[in-house]
Amino acid sequence: QVQLVESGGGLVQAGGSLRLSCAASGRTFRYSMGWFRQAPGKERSLLAGISWSGGSTYYLDSVKGRFTISRDNAKNTVYLQMNSLKPEDTAVYYCAASSSSKVVTAIYEYPYWGQGTQVTVSS
Questions:
Q1: pLDDT digits 0-9 by tens, 80-94
Q2: Residues 88, 45: contact at Cβ < 8 Å?
Q3: Which of 3, 20, 21, 51 counts the highest number of beta carbons within 10 A?
Q4: CB under 8 Å to 51, separation ≥6 — which residues?
Q5: Pairing of strands 57-59, 10-13
Q6: What is residue 10's predicted lDDT score, i.e. its pLDDT?
Q7: Which pLDDT score, from 0 to 100, does residue 28 have?
Q8: SS3 label, residue 14
């Protein structure tokens, strides 16, 4: 089993920045990671993914150039730096671990999930 704990969410004004962290513990294996978000009444969607090595990344078009995913395998932690935040970025943000070392984009390929952290962007 893999346990994931997110932190770093909160309230920020439009145009501001936040950095989310996701600490992993438990069974250690070469897994890619993803950050998802879910707004009220909407489906949970993948924003960014990163391979185990960190050499490959994926971004949803709407966050490209604003969000950056990174990881520190020595600390078993993955990060999501979010800049130029907009009110439409308001959602619960989740990190997830896949069972692949490569970046995967389908939600069903992520068996391990954190509890989520709320991000609210005020206008």
A1: 999 999 999 999 999
A2: no
A3: 20
A4: 32, 57, 101, 102, 103
A5: unpaired
A6: 97
A7: 63
A8: coil
The first and second tokens of residue 57, run together, are: 């990344």
pLDDT tens-place string over residues 18-77 = 999 999 998 767 899 999 999 999 999 999 999 999 999 999 999 999 999 999 999 999
In sequence order, what are the residues at sequence separation of 6 or more whose Cβ sits closer than 8 angstroms to the Cβ of residue 117?
Answer: 6, 7, 8, 9, 20, 92, 93, 94
pLDDT of residue 1: 83
Residue type at 9 in one-letter notation: G
